[in-house]
């Protein structure tokens, strides 16, 4: 019988692909962002955020301080990679979100599973004017050229048909027609490049629409889907070891450390009610990727959190940045 033997949740912020001295490039984007998302649902420009909270984090955004956080994040990612090697899965289900990399407004499913044999990443380095720091990011995401990610189509088809039988309407796709224009994005490439190492583990890409209304699923729906994923995997008679990975999050682009820590505590304590009732206002923009974690939590209810680490990666005086989380289940 197939079994979910382990789980991982990891942030995939560009900061995890850059040296600390380069984080200023992302800070500059924050300064110009007119719609920084707060957990109460408001979208405000940086000037308004600074006026509201003050420069309370100015003392922790020097390069020396950020370098310590960079080192700590890389140490946590190394631990996740070691945990994946320990689990030794036959397949990895990666729950991520597509950000106009594979899908667009012409077709934006709320929930999709890819069942092709190969998932092609999109080449996002075709423009010679791309700045060096962004080239570094895209290499870290496997978006520097078209990469071929080995998939597990039989497991993917089992998930699709099983979820349909569970009354979950899932979109199905089996190919990338032109990866120079559309393809798999950073949520998947980051996990494969940073955590897999030299191992060629087949993946099942699960794509949640967390970013783009009007069809973003609720936290409750995502948790239900995760639970159904577990039931379908465990109903398959094949002897298969499966790891579930959530890619993305936590809060960004304004770090909400209290919210992030409550989410991590809910994962550790198996507090499904908290996760299922996260308000939509707290799940906008980058913070919407928390839904990937909620989905994974549903699939991993049969396991225990083994490790859980958190680093608030603030990069501006008003506290914009990313709440970086790193969790394992066994």
UniProtKB/TrEMBL annotation:
| Statement: the UniProt record of this protein carries the keyword Protein transport | no
* Organism field: Paraburkholderia franconis
Sorted keywords for this record are:
Dioxygenase, Oxidoreductase
Named from the GO MF annotations, one term is: ferrous iron binding
Which regions span the lipid bilayer?
Answer: none
> Is Cell wall biogenesis/degradation given among the entry's keywords?
no
Annotated Extradiol ring-cleavage dioxygenase class III enzyme subunit B domain ranges read 77-302
The record's section on InterPro entries has: 3MGA_Dioxygenase, Xdiol_dOase_suB
Any idea what this protein is called?
Answer: Extradiol ring-cleavage dioxygenase
């Amino acid at each position: 019988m197939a079994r979910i033997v382990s789980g991982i949740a990891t942030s995939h912020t560009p900061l995890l692909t850059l040296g600390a001295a380069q984080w200023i490039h992302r800070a500059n984007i924050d300064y110009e962002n007119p719609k920084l998302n707060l957990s109460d649902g408001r979208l405000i420009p940086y000037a308004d955020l600074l006026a509201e909270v003050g420069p309370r984090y100015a003392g922790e955004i020097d390069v020396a301080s950020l370098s310590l956080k960079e080192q700590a994040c890389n140490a946590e990612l190394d631990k996740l990679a070691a945990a994946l090697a320990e689990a030794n899965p036959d397949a990895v289900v990666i729950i991520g979100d597509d950000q106009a990399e594979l899908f667009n407004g012409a077709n934006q499913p709320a929930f999709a599973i890819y069942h092709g044999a190969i998932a092609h990443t999109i080449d996002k380095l075709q423009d010679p004017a791309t700045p060096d720091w962004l080239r570094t990011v895209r290499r870290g995401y496997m978006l520097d050229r078209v990469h071929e990610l080995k998939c597990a189509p039989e497991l993917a088809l089992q998930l699709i048909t099983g979820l349909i039988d569970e009354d979950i309407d899932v979109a199905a796709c089996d190919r990338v027609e032109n990866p120079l224009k559309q393809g798999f994005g950073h949520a998947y490439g980051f996990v494969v490049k940073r955590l897999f190492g030299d191992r060629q583990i087949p993946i099942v890409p699960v794509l949640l629409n967390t970013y783009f209304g009007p069809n973003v699923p609720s936290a409750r729906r995502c948790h239900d889907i995760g639970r159904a994923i577990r039931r379908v995997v465990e109903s398959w008679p094949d002897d298969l070891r499966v790891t579930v990975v959530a890619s993305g999050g936590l809060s960004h682009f304004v770090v909400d450390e209290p919210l992030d820590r409550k989410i991590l505590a809910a994962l550790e304590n198996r507090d499904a009610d908290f996760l299922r009732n996260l308000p939509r206002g707290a799940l906008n923009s980058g913070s919407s990727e928390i839904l990937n974690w909620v989905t994974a939590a549903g699939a991993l209810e049969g396991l225990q959190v083994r490790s859980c680490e958190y680093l608030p990666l603030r990069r501006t005086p008003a506290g914009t940045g990313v709440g970086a989380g790193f969790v394992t289940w066994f």
